Amino acid sequence: AKVNDLSPLMHDLSLYMRKSVMKNFDMEGRTEMGTGHAWKPLTKRTVKERQEKKGKGFGRHPILELTGDLRRSISISHGRREARVSAGKEYGITHQFGTKRVPARPFLMFPITDIDVWVRHIIRYFKERVFI
């Protein structure tokens, strides 16, 4: 009966997932081990276009944040047995997986180091609430 509804745990995990995605934006991509700046740099053409739209001070960084809409669209949800994080902008798919012209810059990914933290939280949850 104690594991029928894991909503509190799933809520916590969805928050961890969102935090991880935000860190991907902050670090402009991370490797599977969690090290930073893994996204391919912007092309000179893209930098020039960004500067024309936003001004000379706006250049190579932040990657994937010309308007900030994609980052702000990241949302979480959870149920009794699942935790989710998603992007609310259709063009997020293009950046996540890439195309012939746009390199993949996966922002919805979770490094092993983050997953290790989640596993410890799950174990602690079950020790404290289920196996007592």
Notes on the protein architecture:
With 132 residues, the protein is mainly α. It contains five helices and two strands. The protein has helices spanning 7-27, 44-54, 69-72, 92-97, 112-129, and strands spanning 75-78, 83-86. It has a two-stranded antiparallel sheet with strand order 1-2. Helix 1 packs antiparallel against helix 5. It is elongated and about 60 Å long. The two termini are 13 Å apart.
Blueprint of the fold:
Layout: H1 7-27, H2 44-54, H3 69-72, E1 75-78, E2 83-86, H4 92-97, H5 112-129
Antiparallel strand pairs: 1-2
Helix pairs in contact: 1-5
Features:
single chain, 132 residues, mainly alpha, two-stranded antiparallel ribbon, 5 helices, 2 strands
C-alpha-based Rg, rounded: 18 Å
Strand element count: 2
Segments where pLDDT lies below 50 for 5+ residues? Answer: none
Helical segment tally?
A: 5
Quaternary structure of the protein: single chain
- Given helix and strand content, the structural type is mainly alpha
Task: Give the end-to-end Cα distance, rounded to a whole number of Å.
Answer: 13 Å
What letter string, H or E per element, gives the SSE order?
HHHEEHH
